[in-house]
Amino acid sequence: MTHTIAWTDGTWTHQPAHVISKEDGLYATAREGSDAWRTTSYGFVHASEHALLAGLEPESAVEVQFRLDFSGQFDQAGIYVRVDDETWIKAGVELSDGEESLGAVVTQGTSDWSLSPVPGWAGRLVTIRGSRSGNAFTVRARVDDEPWRLVRVAPLDPEATVAAGPFCCAPTRADLTVHFTSWRVTEPDDSLHPDA
Description:
InterPro entries: ConA-like_dom_sf, DUF1349. The chain has no helices and 18 strands. The protein starts with a strand and ends in a 10-residue tail after the last strand. It is an all-beta fold. The strands form three sheets. Strands 1, 3, 4, 8, 14, 15, 16 and 18 form an eight-stranded antiparallel beta sheet that branches. Strands 2, 7, 9, 10, 11, 12, 13 and 17 form an eight-stranded antiparallel beta sheet that branches. A two-stranded antiparallel sheet has the order 5-6. It has a single domain (3-186), classed as Jelly Rolls, CATH 2.60.120. It is globular, with a radius of gyration of 15 Å. The relative contact order is 0.28.
């Protein structure tokens, strides 16, 4: 079932400042102030993320790979999964308070946020994988060919119409360009605990 999605098959939620497709992938330059967040703790709603989305069917997974090269506070990239304006998930790597961290924001009306530092990932290829299976969306990630690590398990309505794909945001600067190297759909993970 694994197949690569062409960059031209997706639709942007918000057009980046600049996008160019090359033989080695897609280069997207985020607009300054771009972000996705709803209310919690900060009180604001930001809905200006650059997410390139295509349909994601039940019992399938989306994988996005990018080169991690961040320098601005809250620079971020990974996968974005959208049901509607108030129901979405973003998961990937974010530069927060000077360190790269792997995390996710799950939004159902209001957002939550989880982060875990990933020292040594800078400059390397990061893959974020989201599996849609049953009533759950399971996020895993890895750097280069290292083992997958579990990031998050979140509820996702099995009947929902879902779109997913790569995203980037640059809340604090104007010159973040993310090099996405692949976008594909695969079979979902067999189980939450592969060795069980």
